[in-house]
Amino acid sequence: MPRVGLFIPCYIDQVYPDVGIATCEVLERFGCEIDFPVNQTCCGQPMANTGCTVDAVPVARNFIEIFAKYDHIVCPSGSCVAMVRSHYEHLLHDEIAAGRVDKAAFKHVEKNTLELVEFLVDVLKVERLDVPFPHKVGLHQSCHGLRELRLGQCSELVSPAYSKAEQLLKTMPGLELVPLKRVDECCGFGGTFAINEEAVSCMMGNDRIHDHEEAGTQVMTAGDMSCLMHLQGLLVRQKKPMKIMHLAQIFAGRSVV
Amino acid sequence: MIAATHDHPANAKKFTDNEPRAHWHDQAIWFVRSKRDKAAWTLPEWETLRERASQIKTHMLSNLAGYLEQFEAEATKRGAVVHWAKDAAEHNEIVLKLLQSHGVKKVVKSKSMLTEECHLNPFLERHGLEVVDTDLGEWIVQLLHEPPSHIVMPAIHIKREEVGELFHKHLGTDKGATDPPYLVNAARNELRQKFLGAEAGITGVNFAIAETGGFVVCTNEGNCDLGVSLPKLHIACMGMEKIIPRAADLGVFLRLLARSATGQPITTYSSHFHGPMEGGELHIVIVDNGRSKILGTPEFRRSLHCIRCGACMNTCPVYRRSGGHSYDTTVPGPIGSILAPSRDPAQHSTLPFACSLCGSCSDVCPVKIDLHLQLLTWRKQIAALGLLPFDKRWGMWFAGKLFSRPRLYELAGKVGRTLWPWLPRFMVYNPLNKWGKQRELPPMPKKSFREMYAQRNETARKKNS
Question: Is residue A55, in this structure, part of any structural domain at all?
């Protein structure tokens, strides 16, 4: 039975706890023994992406210490996983060199931190999800999961088509995936970008929503709750009927609320 | 904090305020991105080509001095004169002296982003010369007294009704005319006169071949050839990174350039120049203007791979919705946001943040510049230089402290979530809350995940015991 250290991003912990619970349920259904180390907080991405490396380093150092003991570290966010897998090496370079972060522990965490969907598909080899979900679903491909973790084919590249999330969604009875015009355009969240470039951020979000509306999306889903938080903010303000759900919630068989 | 002279968020806000126009701009440029996708998919070897092009550029940059000298020697053998300019001012002086010593008063110019970068036109005009940009888009923005908003499609931000109005004013075309063939024909007639009257032609350079001493200029309108065929003096201006080692490498880049830029298999004209025409003179001005400095910084060196195709602009969701002028630089978009801060980080400090870090630019780039990662690196440097605004700097300091103390983080979350529902709406949604201007905040749950998880474990334990 794989021993999984559950990495729940700070904003999911505080604002979207059900996404975390749904993640637990899905992992347990496929036989994982999960543990949530309570001294975890955040991966450090907000600070690092604002350029404040000094403020991100202690947070990243804690992260390595907390998660080094697990076989797998699984997280329902492509963006936070990409932070660990693609950016920690650069961020912690000096710490590792100075011996303040154990190199072997870092390598282990870097290699074994996985996004929920890729863990299900690549490690647990899940092929089917026999959970009915009779709705028209629009998949929003969050950028970091897509272009940093390559959870699916990227529209810019001339390469074979695949999508790990779609692969699972398609096996759910009653679920209809709708086709989008711009299959992987950014929603405009982008962390502090959402505040810093508010006007462009919201226009990007509204354009994504419009694409989903035209496609007939009833439930918009993604592997990253941060994108969905931004899109939900726009949808609710404009009193639009479209709902948002994290992939984990759909996989866990939650009903649409 | 030193205030950024150029404020991208404010410029972008102005652009999006005209929502129909911003949508039109986004869709017009997305159309070009879609054409690029179709063109790329016609070549099964596309990704191999990108890798090859990137390797050639990396090799060239590692041996740049040698290739530049080889180019100079070969070009000189073919009868061209090579000039070296360390910056924009030297470049402009060299061009001006060449024109003055040949008694030139009227110049035609084909599109060159380098001369835009050096602000050559206003410099020559100040010295009493007439300079006409002969690329149609470039000429339109010249008549409007605006800089180009895109490096491949300089007038992409102008609607055809506005071109009609402009030509009515300057060329006397019918008022209200918007028919493209009619307008293009009027422009052609006017530009023909300029070509006939020109005493010198200035061009850019897309690729300079070290092995042969020749160079290639890519255009769609043939204006480069027209501009340098009649006058006896041809001045070609190039950034020093335009070198490629061998003639055989040209095929790699010509296949990538037009497909990436506009979705065409190749530009209508690929004009090759190997030495001056009979009885004429060919001068090549090789310009540094900050490129050596970029070459000396390992984290930004790859930005010198750039072949100025504009694909990163076309794919950039921010560029498409904020317009080229919002960047206040000669080269806008992702690549411009990397190049500009290397000239002046304080002035351009908002540009590396005009990006959602979606990474599309890095994947679309035909020469594999890691654009979004370089933008991220610039953010770090801007923070290190103390150029971050106060709220970002201290906000992130606070977040760092909070996230390093799990108990404090937990407590802060709990207090926040408990108080939140009791706050009156005007306290949450006020002008200071930029999130809430167009967006609702998510409803706050009573319990955090960690509380629910602990409770869940407790219930499971009781059930088992």
Answer: yes
